[in-house]
Design a protein that fits this description.
Number of helices: 13
Structural class: alpha+beta
Distance between the termini: 53 Å
Helix content: 10-25%
CATH superfamily of the largest domain: Glycosyl hydrolase domain, family 43
Number of domains: 4
Number of strands: 41
Largest sheet: 5 strands, antiparallel
Length: 732
Amino acid sequence: MRLRYISLITLLLISSQLFSQESKNEAFIKGENFLKEKKYANALTKFEEVLVEDKSNIEAIFNAAICYLNLDVYETAYEYFKLIDLNKTDRLKDFEYWYAKSAYYHNQIDEASEYINRYLKGLGIKKYQKEASELLKVCQLLVSAKDSLTMNYVIEPFSEQINTSAIELGLIVNKETRKLYFNRQTKDFNLKKERENISALAQVQLLYAEMGKNDTWEMPMLQTVVMDKSNQKNLFPTQAPMPIATDFLICQIIEENKRILVCQNNDLKMMDWTGNEWKIVNNMESLNTNKAEKSGFIFDYGNKMILSAESNRGDLDLFLASVRRDGTWSIDKNISELNTTTDDVTPFISNDGKTLYFSSKGHNSIGGYDVFKSEYDSTTQTWQKPINVGIPINSVGNDWYFSMYGELGFFCSDRIGGMGREDLYRVYAFDKIRMSGKVYNRSSNQIQPNCLLKFVIDGKIIETISEANGSYKVDLPFHKALEVKVYRGERIMYEENLKLNVNPRRPRYMNRNYYIDDTFITNKEENILSYISGNVKDKKTQKNLSSVVKLIDTNTNNTVKTTTTDANGNFNFFINEKNREYIVEANAKGYIYNWLDVGTVNNENSKKIDILLSAIEPNARFTLRNITFETNSDVLQLSSLTELDKVYDFMMENSHIKVEISGHTDNIGDETLNKNLSERRASSVVRYLVGKGIDRNRVVAKGYGSTRPVASNEYEKGGRELNRRIEVMIIG
């Protein structure tokens, strides 16, 4: 019996080895070796090679997910973990730990807590026992922080003029918050090469931007920097010095447009603007040591500085420095009441000189670097216990380089949802602003009492009425686009789409007068306005629906106007721009949004349309508009993202549904290739939605090739072009 038992064990071991050898081809083995060496990008390349040949290889998916996680590509890491069948994880070592870590970085805290608990309660020695225990503590803190640390602040990323797919960091703003400097790493991270090699070639630029007259940021300008010749060998050992590229990380504006404090090669330096370029004027030798000095902030009329420098433990601590009589700097002390055994960095002191903001991985951080606040007690001459500034400023990612000017703040973060690996953000310490003004008649300039002002935001309506003196006031969420309609009686006398821009001088207030125009609706033939009017109905019952309706410019894909239907499901758009092509889109709660192409509208062809909406139920489907891919490829083009974001919003609003994303082609070419291409394109859409936060179990991809045409394939226009499409179908 014992011999049989040993033979059985031996047979199982041999079978396991044979299976392992068969499943682990050369690329897989190389990937494993790279992974052991922590060369994650190189390892990822090999595991992706394996998945090209066998997309169901669970071990390759698992290892690729670990690589993405260690490369800080959190969205893709989470998406890959979601592809793994939870019933087939026995051979995936420490799966629960890695899955929990991925869920944590994807803000799925409950899921992360569940799996990290499974990992810690499991049998056997835990390789990541310490890391898992720390992760569990952070998850528990995050759960409790949802209430205690959540603030009514608004976080808004800078526009694509400033944020890019590269790394933006080191954001510094002047006191009036209308001018800013920041750094940008000019090379995107390349997954095919290791991070260590890229960093040696990466170029960091210094950029400057100003706020324009309409309170929006203008295109940033590249700043010219004179290279420090004593350090050129260390900067670019394989390249000639470049006048516009530098490794200077900006820390503080000392004198506006004249002097800045920067960090270069782990030393703090002062730079002056010569009129054409930035040039080092003070190497601050008395302050810099053979250890690292990373960031600093000068205050008290230029006499004191708080800097982040390497401690005797090897981590970064905050130190107090002051100016000597001879004008040089000296470090006075370690600010022990603020420091932890982890890194404490990027200090900033507010205008009052008593409030310090800095970032730390210690204290009660909810993940990575968190922003903390401390007040100075002049009686005890100490800084008070740091307070976490809370959510949404802090996230599970790194949040740092924070500054605060009154109720406006600025910081850098690598949180989920950014344009690149590190982006710049604004903070508003409020979520509504008071809009006020008066309503006038445009022709007579007389005040207009008793006018109804209706503001539509995400389908919700806020109303106010102008008083006897024509004045009105209303509190509005400022960070979302809104539609404004001004009524006199039942007639719309004025309408516009509006995005409120916060004025840094009076951030909580906005003054805006409205001028109603009697000619807006007129009987004079020469001034007749063209319009699009219509009705929104339930497709099956023909019942009139309450709906949000948008007018979209076909060429730009931008929403031109937004309105809501009246009690009878009717809507109306007056068209100011002639000879443009438009699409009308309707969205009602409990229904699938739908759109109609109305073509060109001008004085001679005002149009009336009906939009039919299908209730959200099994087998209901809709075709996505403006989804495009690169030729013969599954790579989504940027123009597709607007529509895909609508699908994301639709699924977030209807969190109970599951959908099938199906790809379709025309009948040109080999049908096998068409089916494969259609499936890959559908999978690309699924990856995008999952990457944005849709649960992987709620979306499936299918490719049907040319087997389900909706038009004739005999001609292109109105035929094959319609058959090349992506559809969404409700399946549960």
